[in-house]
Amino acid sequence: MSRVRVTSTTIVYGVLLVVVVAAAVVTAGRGRNFFSTGNLDNVLTATTILGLIAIGQTLVILVGSLDLSVPYVVSLASVVGGGIMAGQAGGIVPALLVTLVVCGLVGAVNGAIVAGLHVHGFIATLGTGLVLSGYLGSTYQGSSGLAAFEWRLLDATRLGPVPMAFLLMLGCAGLAVLVLRRTRLGHHLYAVGGNSEVARMSGLRTAVPVVVAHTTCSVLSGLAGLVLLARLGVGQPTVGSQGGYDLMSIAAVVLGGTLLAGGKGNIAGTLAGVAIFAVLDNAMGVMELNPFLKDVVRGVVIVVAVAVYARRELDRRPARFDRPSAGDAPPAPPPGAATPAGTTDKTLEASR
Amino acid sequence: MSAPATTPTGEGARRATPTVPAHSGGLGRRISVGLVTPGGAVFVLVALLLVAIMLTNPNFTDPGALIRFVGRTAPIAIAAMGQFYVIVSGEFDLSMAAVIATQVVIAGNVIGLEDSRILPGLVLMLVVGAAIGLVNGLATTLLRVPSFIVTLGMMLALTGLVRYVTGGAATGNPTETFRDIGRSGIEGIPVLEILPWSVVVLAVVAAASAWLMRRPFGRTLVAAGDNPDALAHAGASLWWVKTRAFVLSSLSATLAGILLVGYAGVHPSVGAGYEFTAITAVVLGGVVLGGGRGWVLSAAAGAFALELLFLLLTALGVEATWRDTVQGLIIIAAVALAARTWSGVRRPRAAPSEPTPEPTPEPTQSTTEGDR
Amino acid sequence: MTTSSSPVLRVRGVTKAFHGNVVLRDADLDLHPGQVLGLVGENGAGKSTLMKVLAGVHSPSSGTVEVDGRPVVFGHPVQAQRAGISTVFQEFNLLGERTVAENVWLGREPRRRGLVDVATMVRDTTALLADLGVTGLDATRRVRSLSVAEQQVVEIAKATSLDARVIQMDEPTAALADHEVALLYSIIRTLTARGVAIVYVSHRLTEIFDLCDVVTVLKDGAQVATEPIAELDEARLVRLMVGRTLEAFFPDPIDGTAPGEARLELRGAGNGYVDGVDLTLRAGEIVGVAGLQGSGRTELLEAVFGVTPLTRGEMVLAGRAVRPRSPRQAVRAGLALITEDRKATGLALHQSILDNTLGVVRAVFPRRTAAARRGVPTLLATLAVSARALSQEVRLLSGGNQQKVVLARWLATDPAVVLMDEPTRGVDVGAKYAIYEVMRRLAADGRAVLMVSSELPEVIGMSDRILVMRDGRLAGELPPSSSEEDVLALATGVTTGVTAGATTGATTGTQVAS
């Protein structure tokens, strides 16, 4: 292994570069400039919301769980925040505090169900998502609440060419990176996601990282809802589900090289994944593709991305004889091996 | 538990080993034992809810009203049975609602107002349904993408297509003859007045499902959910077994779509939320997520229990918008409980005489004790 | 090698029972700083149990453990580690996606001003590795990219980072190449020079004689001898290990059983795990395969059965050249494989006895299901399965009855060649005998049986011929009259003068391979 290691993050940024170049070419073909301030501003704005959620989703997936409740948390934050703010500048601070605490509680409940009741995150958050969906549908009809003018500035202000909200997202990303790399909690998050039995044998309390990851994810989703409130001016009970943030955030995380089964991955990759989707969307917009067809493209990209990464997860005991000459690469499973689905769904096995 | 053969060596003792009976106890005992499993308890739940509703709403005691309720619930029950195949094999199908919407739109656009196109239209719908299931299944088994990702991606793609075709709004309904499959029935039946076609379809699907689950395919499917490794070692084509489950699921969604056109007409949001409702029904029917345990008719019963519960809540003055919340709570509670109760029932009272913790397992091969 | 007067580890009367089944009885050990204690015994002798008790995985049913004269009780492996006993299991407790340093310090990450001090972590790890005489292992590499030997070094480094006074090693060389074994030797010498005591579990007698100061022999859960290595020679050690207190009994072949035509032939067969296998299995024959753990026994069966298909050589099944590329093809060709772990790969535990018995037929020959269904009661009766009903879930059966159901599901396919991997593991005595009888009957019916077993009496008592595997190859063939010593000698590569052609497996070199 003397050659330079090609990490998955490198690959993702390579893909991002390719996508950006392709988008630039397509845009130029339409007689426009992809790198114009206006267009870049569009791209950055588009990454903000999904970026915030995907950072949280990264933590949850790293710890070996999953969060499907994010769209409803986003919606909840948007209407609760808007309701408390009620258009008044003085309402901003209480609105932020209450909203984020409420979202944090939702996340804590998710984490407690996953870690305490041993229900897999997929089911647990599907359940809490539905609970929230029922609450939102019953309590709010149409848009509700109003953002204060000062809060709307968060979306309207630019620092040079960069939107403030985007900087907020980057700040959260930086914080998450710090936590993952430089705190025990972050290290233990990887450990529990990688192999909770090894973590337990090493004396870790495995429930803690799970609950913290879920709580953080919900708080970040709440923050995303508040940014949407700033952008739209009013709270909307369906803003989250319309965005399809559950699937999109999972897709961005996986596209960014994080293992769906947990234990491996990083925030930088996720941000690249988010950016890839934003650039693709932007390019499709320039091409005036029907917005509904965009979903088709997204769906295909997601499945293909996961399929490509699924190949990398394969792991077999090393061969004694005829090792592949390439070196340390694990041997590919023999073609036609009879256990194709035996290992497909590690993530969901725990739901039993 | 049976007495382990501890007094073995005498030849005569072993020769005398009696044939193992097919079942222990008589039919009555088997039913009573079955009813305390989650898969059986759901039938009790249905009965209790039915009584409760009849008490709150005397109209419901009318056989005609009852059969119409069954007819209305048929699409969900059929979808739940479709979802059952996938879940019992250890996977998920989240594309059901999108399949329903797709089929509804196909019905509207292909069949249109021409009665002569009904048959070709139906064939097309079934082919499309099977194709979607095939793609879901192959992507899950051969590409090894977790099924919930595959089917979520499928959902996204199909929903996008449907919205693209319809422009997101209601479009022309198919001919009345076609819609009658979903909303009319055989009239002039004594007591019931009318026997909705949807009830007939439901009965046929239920009977076929029950039959299929007793066939080699059905038993192999359950075994695939229980222990895929053992099944692979037994020489099964795991990928094909599971793929067929996805095909059955999509075909069920197609049937549900055909029935729903009658009620709801053609709109891209027809069937919305059906995947979650179907999963909730399956879970409520005591089927264990992750596979390996559960009965197909319990899944259908789960759908009825769910609908009855919603009716009861409506009767009690709870708004219909709380449906999702109820479903969410049911999913979490049922999943947390089901695995425990299935294993709790029929466990021998005596301490396990099973010498399971083998003193010296060779850990190299199989320390995968923590299977799920 | 300093032998100080006070032992660092003192074990007295440790007994461990599972569900009333005693697997370790009155174990006594004294381990002094810098000593290497060899722990040897056959499979099931109680070595692993003793290790796990000391590692804090199991708590003893009775008896005491003292570290440095202080009695200790462990409820969790971490407590054992804190008390100074670290264990390197065969299955490493490492996170593949994390770096060497992160693994070594997991749960004890050094911090500075609240943040994990990655630089210190890496520096300390590098120092630990250097202390062990290991260079060239970058502390920032991900564990997944390391070889098995390097991962083992990481585990040992982790143990030293915990200031372990005692390090237990479970079959540390099972997966190592020769030059890697040399590295391990040098690490162990480094450790003992520092006063660390080692408990060394191994089947390989060469290593025991190379490394150990004292050897404890376990047999059937009891300690049969603890002697300084100087007072032992290989022949005596082998004699101590083998030989049963309880004489096992095996049914005689059924009259008229005679080897017929060849059913399974392998010529130069191999894949990634076995190599150059030549064997002939005849109708009516029971052929035993012996060998140490990791010698490729299971892999041989898996290769024949298409689980990990053969990639070279010839395979002839009943006169027809076939090379199954999947279990499905193997089953269709008339093979059956009773896997060694019935819970993982043999049964669907939540399904009924009937469903499990018909499992293979339904999966591969669905058209034969009805006929097979009719035969189930007879089949289960011949196997003497005792159960309440066919509808009973298999997980509720005893181990012996479960194993009989495994046999039943394969016999239902009417196989010509039956491959058995540890057919009597975890099975009570009565069921064992019943399974032996089934094997005899299979042979009498003209089927061929290839049986892998790590219980030597079983191999010797049941086989018409004994094949011995070593390092993925067939090391030789022995007649049924062979003694356990003969088999063990051939399997370990020890030359006791009994067998020819056995070369020593492990090098005794002590040079650090860097």
Automatic annotation (TrEMBL), chain A:
Key words of the record: Cell inner membrane, Cell membrane, Membrane, Transmembrane, Transmembrane helix, Transport
Pfam families: BPD_transp_2
Main location per the UniProt record: membrane
Region feature Disordered, mapped onto this chain: 319-352
UniProt topology in membrane: Multi-pass membrane protein
Top-level taxon in the UniProt lineage: Bacteria
InterPro entries: ABC_transp_permease
Localization terms from the record: Cell membrane
Keyword Transmembrane helix assigned: yes
Transcription found in the keyword field: no
Membrane spanning stretches: 12-31, 43-63, 70-89, 95-115, 122-140, 160-180, 210-230, 242-260
Protein name per its UniProtKB record: ABC transporter permease
Protein source organism: Nocardioides lentus
From TrEMBL, chain B:
Topology of this chain in the membrane: Multi-pass membrane protein
Localization per record: Cell membrane
Keywords for the protein's UniProt record, in alphabetical order: Cell inner membrane, Cell membrane, Membrane, Transmembrane, Transmembrane helix, Transport
Coiled-coil intervals, chain numbering: none
Transmembrane stretches, start-end: 33-54, 66-87, 94-112, 118-138, 145-165, 194-213, 245-266, 272-289, 296-318, 324-342
Region described as Disordered: spans on this chain: 1-23, 346-372
Protein name, entry field: Autoinducer 2 import system permease protein LsrD
From TrEMBL, chain C:
GO molecular function, one term: ATP binding
UniProt-listed Gene3D superfamilies: P-loop containing nucleotide triphosphate hydrolases
Record-annotated ABC transporter domain positions: 9-496
Protein keywords: ATP-binding, Nucleotide-binding, Repeat, Transport
Signal peptide coordinates: none
Top-level taxon: Bacteria
Protein name (record): Sugar ABC transporter ATP-binding protein
Family annotation (CDD domains): ABC_Carb_Monos_I, ABC_Carb_Monos_II
Keyword Aminoacyl-tRNA synthetase included in the entry's annotation: no
Entry-linked SUPFAM superfamilies: P-loop containing nucleoside triphosphate hydrolases (SSF52540)
PROSITE patterns linked: ABC_TRANSPORTER_1, ABC_TRANSPORTER_2
UniProt xrefs under InterPro entries: AAA+_ATPase, ABC_carbohydrate_import_ATPase, ABC_transporter-like_ATP-bd, ABC_transporter-like_CS, P-loop_NTPase
PANTHER family associated with the record: CARBOHYDRATE TRANSPORT ATP-BINDING PROTEIN MG119-RELATED, GALACTOFURANOSE TRANSPORTER ATP-BINDING PROTEIN YTFR
